Amino acid sequence: MTIRDAVSRVANRLPHPVRELVRTKIPVATWAELQSARRRRPAAVGQRREPAPDGIRWLTDIANGRGLGIMVGKEVEALLAANKVAQAQSTGDSLAAHAETASLGHTLCGLVAAHRRLYPLAADRFGRGDEELAIALAPVEYVVTRFVTDPVGAKCWAQRMLQTPDVLPPTAWWQVIRHTFPARDDAFNRRVLDTLEASHASNPAAWPRGADVLPELERWIGRPNREIRAADHSVVHFGVLDYRQPDWSTASDNIGDWIQTLASLGHLVRHRNVRFASTDPTVEQFITNLQARVRPELARDSAAGQVEVHVVERDASSFQALPEQTWILAFGWYMHPQFIVSGQFDVPFHPAIRPIFVSFHCNNRAMLTVEAVEYLRAYAPIGCRDWTTVDVLLSLGVPAFFSGCLTTTINTVFPDAPLATRERTIYVDAVRNPVPAGAERSKAMYRLVRDRSFVQNLKEALDVLETYRREYTRVVTKRLHCYLPATSLGVEVDFEPGDNTIVRFNGLSGLSRSEFDDMRASLLARLEPVMTAILAARPEQEIYRLWRDLNAEAVRHATNRHQRPTIVSPAVDPLLASLGNVVPPEALAHDDTIDVAVVVPPGHEVHLTGVLASARDRSSRPLRAWIFAASSPARPPGVEIRWIDTSTTVDGGLTLSDLGSLAAALVPADRLILLPLAALVEEDLARLANLDLDGRVLAARRTSSSSSSGFATFYRAATRLDDRPETAFESYRDVHARHRFDFDAFDTALLVLDLAALRRSEGLRQLLHSFVEYRYSAHEAWHYLVGNDYTRLDPAWGYVPTRDRPVAPYVWHWADSTKPWSSPYTPGRDEWRRAQQAGSDGDR
Fold first, then answer.
1. What is d(CA 149, CA 157) in angstroms, rounded to the nearest whole number?
2. First to last CA, the chain
3. Which run of H or of E encompasses 557?
4. pLDDT digits (tens, 9 = 90+) for 270-309
């Protein structure tokens, strides 16, 4: 038997596209060469052999004992690594569709779903596959899927796996402890950590990062759990922020964080009659030395007293034992979970902490739990570093105001010194524009930051800033905590963020010199009386009352700004009038006809018959289809077709095609069902036509995507406004004023629309405003209009086979790049093709 015959025999037993995957690994042009090579003399010892083609190596691996499942799995992993997700998905689905390879196919689909973070689907597919193969092929994805979808069951499973620890590689045991460590079951975590360390020791090359991660983790296991120590009330207890947490790999490696801490210390040490103590002598010495650096004009003669300084871990204070009533300035980015996969944030803080929130940033729905929001409300008002955070918190009912960033006050601990005079520029993580050849460069983020002590990093922060002001006349950077502190020290800075619309920079970028000075002066003025009261050991209630009084006017200003009415773009009304000429209103008979709309991308009119024919065959009432397409579509019998030409130009040089599904809002019907083109209807659409929307404008299913945040939709959309950052920042204010943070996004390919209600509420003008002013897509504009105020549809209406767990679909929707008319396999393809053929036959 020839090699070709052997490969063909194996390949012919495999389903498509795996069959094609095997065959394409061996180009036909090489067969003669391979046959000839069999007849050649063996190479002499030491002589270099030509490598065999991939396909031969693939087959040889099977012949040498590697299972077909592992080999196909490795190919799927390679496809995912190359971002060929659709091909990987089709491979798994094709295998799953055949009884002899179903288990392998489901396992591979589980791998693909976990790669896409579609964990409910991954759990279903792994559950119908082969666990042994899943562990061999995708141990990390398998473990993460189990813990994300069923944490309790996953822990029980991990306890069983501890009996046979060698089954899992160290990377998988690492995922186990990342998910279980925050629950603080020290006995269980100790067993897992011992297993992880033994696994890593036996094969360190399998997990090189373990050499860094494991020693840090050892230092955290068995630590206190929110322990409150009795306090010596003869001294004031004050916490300063460090940035360590049990997961070394996600702890801060940004020296800018310690620059923030340095700036916060300036508000403490400027009180020169205070003396400092700490259980760590290096901390005590550093702060005492820092006190000697205070600019004379900013020093204050407060009441004499002693402060005991405690290093507080911003992201893991719950692992510490702290004395009661430990005050801190709570600033910075509070969106670092304890172990990034666990989704557990250290908010609320340790119960001993008394926070003064200033220069605070957050926009993470997972962090802003009900408990966290109540905690913020209890210690409000919250001084926010950026306007986006102000709007997020105000939408949640938390009093907030814009404070700006603490690093603007870093000059407090930098007395006057000679500045650089020779023209010299340094580029700090500058990426927006090309860096000139030979220019001096520096980084703000680097590994060594994670390995140094708290005081070592503070000293480094001092040295970095001293270097900027003494050796350079100009800094170019994308880092906020380089731009602001360097500006504070008098250095000329070009702030060039990679994206001008980043939510964190709202209110901080593009500052004039006077705006910068006002921000710095305001922070100094707000914090001075509060710090004075804290250092004088005034009662807690008095201190928080003082904080509220100091910032009451700023909160009122922020609230008025937040609630400011949005002015509709002047371009909307001319566009609306122009659209009325394209789709003029008409009087439709009030009969039992169901109005549906399909928006067809140019060149895809030929695929329309499948969705229309299936809708016709399942519907108990007549259909009228509004087809938005560039050319006249086919007209299957039994469906009334109204064609709207999307190539028509409207006001502003737009075509109707540019509006996408927003064009459906122009249909003169009262109730409309928007259907995707790549769809197959399996249920009577009369159910949707009769659906009670309870006064809402639309009904939709919750998003089938792995990203469920509605506000993430708005934030992503704003990146198109890089050339108009002020408009992007206004869009943030607008959407947070319209909608409470956060809500579940929804799929917009299939919608049930109450067009009569839309017209009454002037919803179309709002849709067009977001389209024109914010450059929103149709998907984003529908979210802008309704936010969380939509009627939920059963996910079976719009079932996406490559994203959803299997159900009996009411409407299939192929939302990913592989469509039922594509060559690669996708579930439901044969059913759609039959409907397409039936509709086409009827049309002829």
1. 13
2. 50
3. helix 540-562
4. 999 999 999 999 999 999 999 999 999 999 998 889 999 9
Residue 790 has what pLDDT?
Answer: 97
CA distance 47 to 42: 10
**Eight-class DSSP state of 272:** T
Q: Tell me: the pLDDT tens digits for 521-548? A: 999 999 999 999 999 999 999 999 999 9
Tokens (6 digits) for 512:
């004039």
Kindly report the pTM of this predicted structure: 0.91
pLDDT at 57: 63
Q: In this structure, are strands 326-333 and 236-242 parallel, antiparallel, or unpaired?
A: parallel
Residue 711 near residue 735 (C-beta atoms within 8 A): yes
The pLDDT, as a whole number, for residue 359 is: 98
Q: How far apart are CA 716 and CA 741, in angstroms?
A: 15
Q: Which residues of 287-308 are buried (b: 16+ CB within 10 A; e: fewer)?
A: beebbeebeeebeeebeeeebb
Contact 343, 361 (CB under 8 A): no
Q: How far apart are CA 33 and CA 504, in angstroms?
A: 61
Structure tokens at 106: 């489901």
* CA–CA distance, 610 with 573 (Å, rounded to integer): 37
Angle, CA 340 vertex, CA 339 and CA 346 arms, to 5°:
65
Cα 234 to its chain centre, rounded Å, is: 46
The Cα-based distances of 549 to 325, 390, 529, 531, 543 in angstroms read 21, 18, 11, 14, 10
Its sign, for the CA torsion 294, 299, 301, 304, is negative
Alpha carbon separation from 507 to 256, 381, 510 (Å, rounded): 19, 18, 8
Residue 517's H or E segment, with its range, is helix 513-535
Residue 34 near residue 3, CB atoms below 8 Å: yes
Strands (E), 403-458: 425-428, 440-442
Residue 505 half-sphere exposure toward CB, CA atoms < 13 A: 24
Residue 357 CA: distances (Å) to CA of 344, 366, 560, 610, 843: 21, 20, 21, 58, 68
- If you ran DSSP here, which 8-state letter would residue 200 be given? H
Please list, in sequence order, all residues whose beta carbon lies within 8 angstroms of the beta carbon of residue 406, skipping any fewer than 6 positions away.
260, 263, 264, 267, 329, 331, 358, 359, 385, 523
Residue 395 CB neighbours (<10 A): 19
Tokens of 276: 């400092």
Give the CA-trace dihedral at 408, 410, 415, 418, to 10 degrees: -70
Give the strand pairing for 751-754 and 698-700. Answer: antiparallel
Q: What are phi and psi of 229, to 5 degrees?
A: -90, 150
| Residues contacting residue 268 through CB under 8 Å, at least 6 positions apart | 238, 240, 274, 287, 307, 531
Joined tokens for residue 558: 């922020």
